[in-house]
TrEMBL record:
PANTHER family: ECF RNA POLYMERASE SIGMA FACTOR SIGJ, SIGMA 19 FACTOR. This is RNA polymerase sigma-70 factor (ECF subfamily). InterPro entries: ECF_Sigma-70_Domain, NTF2-like_dom_sf, RNA_pol_sigma-70_dom, RNA_pol_sigma-70_ECF, RNA_pol_sigma70_r2, RNA_pol_sigma70_r4_t2, RNA_pol_sigma_r2, RNA_pol_sigma_r3/r4-like. Pfam families: Sigma70_r2 (PF04542), Sigma70_r4_2 (PF08281). SUPFAM superfamilies: NTF2-like, Sigma2 domain of RNA polymerase sigma factors, Sigma3 and sigma4 domains of RNA polymerase sigma factors. The lineage of its organism: Bacteria, Bacillati, Actinomycetota, Actinomycetes, Streptosporangiales. Residues 109-158 form the RNA polymerase sigma factor 70 region 4 type domain. Residues 13-74 form the RNA polymerase sigma-70 region domain. One of its GO terms (molecular function) is DNA binding. Keywords: Sigma factor, Transcription, Transcription regulation. GO terms for biological process: DNA-templated transcription initiation. Belongs to the sigma-70 factor family. ECF subfamily. It comes from Murinocardiopsis flavida.
Length: 297
């Protein structure tokens, strides 16, 4: 940097980290962007000469804004029509290659994070994903350090018990995705059944604004018939299915006339698809229009 070059604005410098923090806290691209806007307003008004560690200050600001928003959102989500799923986003293939980072933003992990309380979620993310010290987290969430250690332990155990890890290499996932798209395009229920684990479960989130199953569907036959029935809807006659990296994992986008109308994520077990999650709520598809940058630190 030359002597005449202006110092980079810390907010701009750390924006990817701030978005990553807010998104993991809220499970919503739109809400994360709103939080970042509020954080920018706060940052613009503050006396920056009094801030010794801008990055820590900005992360603390975003975390607390997210906590406030998440606390107020929980009642809304409890009254949500049908199944609530996180808002998906396109991510760079580079993230998918970083297994640990990809796991922290997968739809499956976001669903587990939703079962944590707001403070538990913040503590877990700041510690396990972003690597902050207990002292730093205590200052951020305004709790005593021993209390933060207890919260971190409970949250870690909660996630461990609910987050089953599924081992599938990239080649297996590409094959499964390609075969799934081909089977759906062919409309052969038996071909789709062959790709699904017998105990498969499918969740779909339409938010009352798009066709979706209100309750989870269980079993390969039932899930496959529901998928193909959905694809036969007249308004989806021109639908195409395209592979895409969604939340760090290869998934499928449903596209009609160049417009994304749905996103599918799934787990892979012994080469078969399990735990399908369909996001078709039009209000939750904004993060699928372009790649979003995410960061660990």
């Amino acid at each position: 940097m030359t002597a005449d070059a202006p110092e980079p604005d810390p907010y701009i410098e750390h924006r990817r980290l701030l978005f990553a923090t807010a998104y993991r806290m809220l499970g919503s691209v739109a809400d994360a962007e709103d939080v970042l806007q509020d954080a920018w307003l706060n940052w613009s008004a503050v006396d920056r000469g009094s801030i010794r560690h801008p990055k820590a200050y900005l992360v603390r600001t975003v975390t607390n804004l997210s906590l406030n928003r998440l606390t107020s959102a929980r009642a809304t989500r409890e009254a949500y029509f049908g199944t609530w799923l996180p808002e998906p986003l396109l991510t760079s293939p580079d993230i998918a290659a970083e297994t640990e980072l990809a796991d922290t933003i997968s739809i499956a992990m976001m669903v587990v994070l939703e079962t944590l309380g707001p403070v538990e979620r913040a503590v877990f993310l700041l510690r396990e994903v972003f690597g902050y010290s207990y002292a730093e987290i205590a200052e951020t969430v305004r709790r005593r350090e021993p209390t933060v250690r207890q919260i971190a332990y409970r949250a870690r155990e909660h996630v461990r018990k609910r987050r089953r890890r599924f081992d599938a290499d990239d080649a297996q996932r590409r094959r499964a995705t390609s075969r799934f798209i081909e089977a759906c395009a062919g409309g052969d229920v038996h071909a789709v059944v062959e790709l699904l684990a017998p105990e498969v479960t499918a969740w779909s989130d339409g938010g009352g604004k798009a066709t979706a199953a209100i309750r989870p569907l269980h079993g390969a036959d039932r899930v496959s018939r529901w998928i193909l029935g959905f694809l036969r809807k007249p308004e989806l006659a021109d639908l195409t299915m395209e592979p895409a990296v969604i939340n760090g994992e290869l998934g499928v986008l449903a596209v009609v006339g160049g417009r994304v109308v749905g996103a599918l994520s799934f787990d892979l077990v012994d080469g078969r698809i399990q735990n399908l999650r369909f996001q078709v709520n039009p209000d939750k598809l904004g993060g699928l229009t372009h790649e979003n940058g995410l960061a660990r630190s």
